[in-house]
Amino acid sequence: MATQGTRIESPDDSNLNKEKFYYSHPPHQNQQILTNQTSITRREVRRKKTKKIEKFKNACKKTTTFLFSRVGLCIVCIGYVAVGGLIFRSIEGSYEDEKMKNKSLVGDLVNIRTDNLVHEIWNMTKFEKVFHEKNYTSKLKKKLIEYQKNLTDAVKDGYKGSLSYNATKWTYPGSILYSVTIVTTIGYGHITCETDTGKIVTIFYAIFGIPMMLLCLANIGSSMANLFRFMYARVCCGYCNYVKRRNIRMKAAATLSSAAAAGQANAAAAAAALSLAALTSNNLIAHASADEKQNENEKFSKTADATELIDLIDETNVVDYKKITVPISITLFVLSSYVLLGGILFKTLEEWTVIEGVYFCFITLSTIGLGDYVPGNSINDTDTQAELKLVGCSLYLLMGLSLLAMCFNLMQEEVTAKFKKLAVRLGIIDDPNYW
C-alpha cells in the first residue's frame, strides 16, 4: 500500500499502486511532489559538486603556499635544475652522440696524425740531407706547423690529451652546471647549445628559472640572515652585554654602600636612576620600543630595595636579536673568508694558484662569469673526476649565492640603521623605531 509514495512497491501490483497514487493525490499535487523531489536531487548534486570544488581549491591553496614557502622554493629550484639537466642532456647529448658517430674518434685521429708525423720525420731524416740545416729545419718546421694545426682542431673537437679519449661535453653533471649558470645569470660560455631546439629551450628555461632562483635566494638569504643575527646576538652581543651589566651592577653596589654610609634615605632610588641611565647609555635597552622603555623606567622608579635593584639589573635584557644589526666589517669578513676558502679548494682540485682560485670564486659569485677558468677542463682529468668537479662547482656556487644574499641583507639593515641614527641626530625624525 502507498499513501504518498512515488515509487512502485513491486512489478506485480504496479497498476494498482499507480491507481492508488493518483486517486490519493490530485494531478497538480502529483506534479508538485515530483518537482520538489527533482529540485532536492539537483540541490544535493550541486552541494556535492560545491564540496569537491572547495576541496580542490583548498588543495591548490595548500600546494601554492608550500611551493612559495622557503622549503618549497628550495625543493622547486633543485627539481627545476635537475629536470633542466635531463632536458639539455637529452637534446644536446643526443646531437653530440650523433655528431661523434659521424666521425672517427678524436683520439684515433690524433694518434694517426702522430704516427704519420713520425714516419715523415723518419723519411726526411733518411732521404734528406740532414746536415744541411736550413733545408732540413724549414721542411721540419712545415710538418710541425701542420701537425700543430691538426692538433688544435682536435682540441676544439674535444680532445683532452688522451689518445683514446672520446670527448663528451653534455654529460649529466655538465648539463646540471649549464642549467645552474643559466638560472643564476652567470653563463660561463664553456658549453653552449648547438641545436635550434636547445637554444629555444634555453630561452624559455631562463625566462621561468631566473625569477624563481632570485626569489629562492632572497628567501634563503633572509633565513640565513636571521640565523646569523641570532648567533651574533647570543655570542658577541651576549658577552658584551654581560660585561656591561656586571660593571653597572658593581657601580650600583658601590653607590648603595656609599649612600648607606652617608645615611641617605633614598639610596636605592638614587642607585636605580644611575643604573637606568647606565643601561640606556650602554645600549642595553636602546633597541627596545617606547612601551618597553617605559616599562623599564617604571620598574626602576619603583625599586626601593638594594637586592631588588641588583636582580633587576641582571634581568634587564630587552635587546631583541631581530633588531640588532651586524657590522658591515663582519659580513665582509664572512664573504672574504668564503671566497678565500673556495680559492684554496679549487687550487687543490684544479692545480691552479691561490690567486687564480680566488679570482674564479669572485668572478663566479659576482655573476660575472667570464669563463676563462672553469672546473673540470683539465686535460689530466678522467670522466669521473671532471663530473665530480662540476657537481662540486655547482654546490659551491649555490651556497655562495645564498651566503651573498645573506650578507647583502645584513649590510642593508646596517646601512638603514646608520641612516636612522643620522636622521635622529639631524632632527629629521624623533624616534628611530618610526620606520
Task: Outline the secondary-structure elements.
Blueprint: H1 14-24, H2 27-67, H3 70-101, H4 106-127, H5 133-156, H6 172-183, H7 196-262, H8 267-281, H9 290-301, H10 306-315, H11 328-350, H12 354-365, H13 383-426
Helix pairs in contact: 3-6, 3-7, 4-5, 6-13, 7-8, 7-10, 7-13, 8-9, 11-12, 11-13
Spatial extent as radius of gyration: 40 Å
Oligomer: single chain
The DSSP helix count reads 13
Topology as a string of helices (H) and strands (E): HHHHHHHHHHHHH
Between the first and last Cα atoms, what is the distance in angstroms? 81 Å
Q: What's the helical proportion of residues?
A: over 70%
Largest sheet: none
Which term fits the overall shape? Answer: flat
Q: Structural class given helices, strands, pairing?
A: mainly alpha
Mean pLDDT: 74
Strand content: under 5%
Number of strands: 0
Low-pLDDT parts are 1-12, 14-24, 274-288, 300-307
